[in-house]
Amino acid sequence: MKTTFLSSLCLLLALVATPLRAQDVQPVAISASETQKEVLRFGTLRYDSLLHAMPEYATMQTRLADLRAKYEKEIDYNEETFKRQFAEFLQGQKEFPQNILLKRQRDLQAAMERSLAFRHEADSLLSQAAIDLEAPIRQRLNAAIQAVGLERGYAGIVNLDTPSMPFVNPRLTEDATPYVVEKLILTRDR
Predict the structure, then answer these.
(1) DSSP character at residue 175
(2) Are 54 and 73 in contact (CB under 8 A)?
(3) Where are the alpha helices (DSSP H) in 18-54?
(4) Which residues contact 128 (CB under 8 A, 6 or more apart)?
(5) For FRET with 92, which of 6, 8, 61, 113 sits at 20 to 30 Å CA-CA?
């Protein structure tokens, strides 16, 4: 048993000590880019804060408020007209013949439906106006963010307003906000 163990040990040592031939070794080429790993950097910002800080956004809000006031004025007019018609109906309902009473009820019903339809239409129009007025402002902000991302060499810019990225490593990120603000100021002056 000792001789078998010793013979196995000698055979193992002989195999390990056997020099490798040159054909068995394949050279591995390592490029310079692999030896110096590039660290990706990301910018961070708060999109909504930047959007709301833009002067164009304040102008848009003023225009929307003016439009909303005009719609509210018309809604109030419709409600006052309905209230007046309803008061007249209540005062004269005992004196009206049946056919006039039915006609006034239909008129009241139609006035109420028109008022509700106008209110819904006004809400839809205001929502669409907000989207239409905000679109060029968002386009301008997005263009500034893209330009800063390219200039600063970011792999991407993360919006910290959304909870989709609950952690961003501060060693790999940079606050891009001042650069975006600067870009917005420069493009506004053109």
Answers:
(1) E
(2) no
(3) 32-35, 47-53
(4) none
(5) 113
